[in-house]
């Protein structure tokens, strides 16, 4: 009986993700005194790419990369509860699902690394090195924050962690364990691949990479994941640190506000080089995460 409700959750999140991405792009454009894309542009691009086919082949793993990437986003979304207290939108959550969520967060990145390695492009190793180095450095403070929260609530169940934060806004982890939340939100900036941590994609510097190496329906899979995976990751942040959501309006508001944090930083600060971003995470975010565990 949970499968139809899980598919409904996926449908809602995909559409919300597309609209949210367009709105964030529009906000960033207005900061730069540009108009930005129409809110329906992502749908047009998606339909166009799904309608195209390609005869180019680079090997099986190259084309499994986008599939693994999408699987990471869909799996993360479907194995954690979206709406607390709702049987319909609890998805396939279970006791200890927090550990599985951590695996799914990194799963898509590893899949894309394997796909890029088989592309045959001489610069693919540069992209793999950049991506895995920065993502690992960004996920480290998040993992430390998750361990701190698990120690605080004595559980690895996302549902139980959300339940412990109910009753008052002061029960949210952001107030009861601010150091863990600070470490996680600093790591969040890097995991979203937005400025100043977007050198992995480097759209203004390197005319290669997933947007050009992948095309047609494979690019459409990646575009779909860009709508799902950020929202799924923000569901984890919302559930662990900001009290979760008891209804869809609260869900939309909290997810958008969390995303707005990375958008705000992205339009204010210039881009870091890879070694600068890794140094930044290790100097500022990781010690905060370690301190939060020590205090717990």
Summed up:
70% of the residues lie in helices and 0% in strands. The chain has twelve helices and no strands. The longest helix is centred in the first third of the chain and has 30 residues, at 2-31.
Q: What does this protein look like?
A:
With 296 residues, the protein is mainly α. The radius of gyration is 19 Å and the shape is globular. The chain is built from twelve helices and no strands. 70% of the residues lie in helices and 0% in strands. It has helices at residues 2-31, 41-50, 60-78, 97-117, 124-153, 158-164, 173-176, 178-191, 210-213, 216-241, 248-268, 274-295. The chain has one domain. The termini are far apart.
Key traits:
296 residues
- How much strand? under 5%
Principal-axis shape: globular
Domain count: 1
Fraction of residues in helix: over 70%
Mean pLDDT across residues: 86
Contiguous helical run count: 12
* Rg estimate, integer Å: 19 Å
- Derived from helix and strand composition plus strand pairing, the structural class reads mainly alpha
pLDDT below 50 for ≥5 consecutive residues: which ranges? none
Order of helices and strands: HHHHHHHHHHHH
Distance between the termini: 39 Å
The main sheet comes to: none
What is the count of β-strands? 0
